[in-house]
Write a structure and sequence with these properties.
By secondary structure, this protein is of the alpha/beta class. Strands 11, 12, 13, 14, 15, 16, 17 and 18 form an eight-stranded mixed beta sheet that branches. It is built from 32 helices and 26 strands. The protein binds a DNA duplex through helix 9, helix 19, helix 26, helix 27 and helix 28.
Amino acid sequence: MVGYLRKKTYICSLDAIDTKHQKGNRIMEQMNEKQQEAVCHTKGPLLILAGAGSGKTRVLTHRTAYLIDKMGVNPYSIMAITFTNKAAGEMRQRIDEIVGFGSDSIWVSTFHSTCVRILRRHIDFLGFDTNFTIYDSDDQKTVMKDICKRLEIDTKIYKEKFFLSVISSAKDSLINPEEFTLNAQGDFQKQRQSRVYMEYQKVLKANNALDFDDLIVKTVELFMANKEVLDYYQERFQYIMVDEYQDTNTAQFQLIKLLAGKYKNLCVVGDDDQSIYKFRGANIYNILNFEKEFPSAKVIKLEQNYRSTQNILDAANGVIANNISRKDKALWTKNEVGEKVAFHQFDTAYDEADYVAGDIISKVRNAKYEYKNCAVLYRTNAQSRLFEERFIQSNIPYKIVGGVNFYSRKEVKDLLSYLKTIDNARDDLAVKRIINVPKRGIGATTLTRIADYASEKELTFYTALRSAEEIPGLGRSSSKIAPFVLFIQVMRTKLEFLSISQILEEIIEQTGYVAELEAEDTIEAKARIENIDELLTKVVSYEESAETPTLSGFLEEVALVADIDSLDESNDYVVLMTLHSAKGLEFPQVYLAGMEDGLFPSYMSIASDNPTEELEEERRLCYVGITRAKENLSISCARQRMIRGETQYNRVSRFVKEIPKELLEGEIRKEKELEIPETPVYQKAKSAFKAKPMALTQAQPKPFVSVNTGNKILDYAIGDTVKHVKFGTGIVKQIMEGGRDFEVTVEFETAGTKKMFASFAKLQKQ
DNA sequence: TTAAGTTAAGTTTTT
DNA sequence: CTTAACTTAA
C-alpha cells in the first residue's frame, strides 16, 4: 500500500537494552534510563506512568521514531491518540521533526477526530449517512428541549441539562438505550430517563446527526457489529499510543482495546495524579487496572521531572500527598531549588487582579519575562473577567482560553448553519436556526406547521420546505419560504465552481448579515463582525492547508475544535485560562488565582455526597496547576469576592495549607484564621442569600438590640457607629438576617459602604 | 410576528 | 451580576 518505508533490519531485543551501547544514537540521546526503556519496549502492552513534566511527549515521539527507524515499522501502521487538537498538532510537529520521512502517514489525532474519520467511511453500516453532522452541546440542548415538550416533561422540575448528563454518562459507559431501559425496570425515574434517551437517539438518527459521545460509541458499535471493518483497522494500526490515558472513559478504553485487540502493541501514557475529568466520565480504573486488563503489561514509571524547580515540585508533592487513592510515586528533579512559592492574600478580588497585573508589568519591565511566559490560572471561567478588565487598563496583551467556544458564538453558528444547510440539509436544527435569520417573516406558527407536516410525511424539515405550497394551513407564508429555498438551491449549484470562502462571502452579502450588524453600530455588533471576519480567515486558511478542501471537510474540522487549540506560542500575550485547560502546558511564571475554600476546592465538591472523592479530584487539579510552573509560582486569594452578584467571604484554600510552610513566601494570617467560626463561610453566604432585610423603620426607636448569632452576639443596631479594624469607623445601615449569621451593611467614613458578616467583621460599637 | 421589557435562574471543570 | 426565557404591547 505504501512504498516508501525505510526497511531496516536492526532489531532491538527487549532485554538487550544497554544504554551504553546506544551511545551516539540520536534517538537515545538526552534520555534517562527509564525513558529509554519505554522507548525500546515496543512489543506488547506498556503502561507508562509519567509524572508531571517527566518528558512523556518526548518519550512518545522518540518511541515513534524508534519504531520506524530501528524496528522497521511502517509509519502507516502507527497511531497516536490525544485529547485535544493542540496536543495532536504538537505531537505531529515533533514527530515530523524527529522522524522526517514518512511521518505524515502516521495517524496523530484526537479520539474524536479518529472516530469521525472511521465513521465517515463506514457508518452507513449502522444506518447513518456518511455525511452525518456533529451536534455540539447547544444543539443537544435544543433537541432535548423539543423532546421534553413532546414527552410533556416539565423542564422546571427536570432540567434538559439533567437528562443530557444522564445520557452522556450512559454513553460514556457504553450503555445503549435498550440496556438503559432494561436497567430501569422498577424505577420510575429511570424509566422516564430511558424514554428520553430513546427519543433523543431517535431524533439524532432522523437528523443524521451524532453528538460528541456518539462519535466514540458508534465507532465501538461499528467494530463490534462488523468484524471485517474491525479486522481492517486492527491490521492497520499495529502500534497504538495513547496520551493522557488517565482521562479516558469506558467507551474510549473499549475503543482502544478493540483496536489493539489483535497485536496488543498498546502503549498508554498517563498520570493518575493528573486525572481531572471524572465529571466527564473519565474512568480512573482504566489506569489503575491496566495491568489486570493486560496481564502481560510492562509498567514503567517516569519520575524525574525536567520542568520545575525543586521548590515548586516540593509544593506540588506536598499537596498531592494528601490524596489516599493514588499510585505511589515520588517526583524528583535535578533542577535548582529556585524561588519560593509566593503567597498573597488580598481583601478583594480586585486587589488580587491589580497585584497580578502589576507583577506582570514589573517582571516584563525588568526583562525577567515576556508576556507569553506568564499564565493566570483559575478554577472557574467567571474569574477571568476581573483580570481582563485590569489587563486592558494596564495595556497588558492577553488571551483568554475557554469560556464560550468561538464556534458556538451566535453569529458564527448562524453562518455555519447556512453552510451546513447548503452542504447537507438533513440537519433540521441548522435549517430551523437560519430560516428566519435574517427576518423573513416566518414565525413560530409557520414553523410548527411545517414541522408537523414533515414528521407526518417523514420528510426532513428542508424537504418539507421545498414543497411548502402543498402544506395545508400555511397560506401566504409559503410565499415567504420560496425565496429562502431558492437561495439555498442556487448556492448549492454555485458550490460547483466557487470556493468555500466565496460561498461564505456570498451568504454574508445576500443575507445582509454583516450589513445588519453594521447598522446596529454597537460595540457588541462590532465584536460580532470581527468574529465573522475571523471565521472567514479560518475558512481561507482551511482552503490553503487542506489537500482537497471541501465544504463538508471544513464543517467537520470546525465541529471538533476546542478553544485551547487556538493557543499560539509565537504571540506575546499573557494567557488566562481554567486549570482544566492548562493541563499539558507549562509556563515560567504561573499565577494561581482565587485559592479560596468554596471556590477552589469548589463549593460543589465540598458539599457533594462524596466529598472525599471529589476533593481528591480538586486536589489533583491543584497539583496540575502547581506543576504548570517552571520557575515561578504565585498563589493568591481574596477574603472577599463577588460571586453571582453576592459578596462572599472565603477562607484560604485548604490546598495552600498543604504546601509545606517553609516553601511559602508570604504568610497565611493565622489570627484571622482562628476567628473564622466553625460553620464554613460559604454556607452562611448561601443562607444570607435567602435572608430578609430588617426594615429600617423597625429598628427604631433604637433600643439596645442584642442578637444571638450562634456563637456571637451583636451589640449594635442600625444607626449605630461602629469601628472596623481595617475600614475605620462607619454607620450601620442595614442588618440582614441569615441562617446562622448576620450580614451587616456599614457606611464607612473613608472606605465607602461595605457588606460583611457580623461574626467575621468584628465590629466594635463606639 | 416582532421588539422591547420584565423576570427568573444560574456557575465548576469540556472533547 | 449576567443571560436566557417568558410576557406584553405595537
